């Protein structure tokens, strides 16, 4: 059992909460039983190290069996060590270290996708993670991060996806121009979610076609130049008194509307 919170190994794991450490090692943190369960079920080849407290091991026999079936050994750690490794204030007894999966937009387009989300300059980790989760639920084929969008492997993003990070291909670090040109070459139309667009109910006839939804920054949205690169801007009408919708909520509606239309 590892019981020294100041050991080099413990410090190395904790450093993965920082983007620089993730970039230099190609590794990231996965915290909590739900997310660890999903990586074991869907992407076990990404798992490098798995740490559990004794209490978690004793009450999570199915998680231990899943690790054994995936050929991953469980390293027992003290509560203090797990707390020193974790990014959260109250960790849930299990932490995994995983390899990042490097993919390109071209890799995704080769599979003939019909629904894709593009996040451009999205800064809030909770929004980014929730959009990945919504894209997964709506059956989207990929999520693409462009510009200075938050790192997909930021611990808060990973937690917000509740495991969907391991279900949907993620591409990041590309430019918006490259992403748009590649999705168009694959036959997808580009719809930009923006307040300047047409009301979504008025353009529902477009939604059955293969679509890449473009979502911009939480505070300023998309610039006029970025909007001009889309085939059509679309907005969600506000029927009540709300000033606006949260980005992740709006993205969820857009993705589901496309999913409904494509499956009707």
How large a portion of the residues is in β-strands, by DSSP E?
A: 15-25%
Which percent range fits the helix content? 25-40%
Biggest sheet character:
6 strands, parallel
Oligomer: single chain
Q: Write down the overall geometry.
A: elongated
Commentary on this structure:
The protein has helices at residues 8-15, 19-25, 33-42, 54-59, 61-69, 79-85, 105-109, 125-137, 155-161, 176-185, 224-228, 247-263, and strands at 27-31, 47-52, 74-76, 94-99, 115-120, 142-146, 170-174, 189-199, 211-215, 232-235. It is built from twelve helices and ten strands. The longest helix has 17 residues, at 247-263. The radius of gyration is 20 Å and the shape is elongated. The strands form two sheets. The protein has a six-stranded parallel sheet, with helices on both faces. It has a four-stranded mixed sheet with strand order 1-4-2-3. Helix content is 39%, strand content 21%. Strand 6 (142-146), helix 9 and strand 7 (170-174) form a beta-alpha-beta unit. It is of the alpha/beta class and 264 residues long. The chain starts with 7 loop residues before the first helix and ends with a helix.
Task: Give the topology.
Elements: H1 8-15, H2 19-25, E1 27-31, H3 33-42, E2 47-52, H4 54-59, H5 61-69, E3 74-76, H6 79-85, E4 94-99, H7 105-109, E5 115-120, H8 125-137, E6 142-146, H9 155-161, E7 170-174, H10 176-185, E8 189-199, E9 211-215, H11 224-228, E10 232-235, H12 247-263
Parallel strand pairs: 2-3, 5-6, 5-9, 6-7, 8-9, 8-10
Antiparallel strand pairs: 1-4, 2-4
Helix pairs in contact: 1-6, 8-9, 8-12
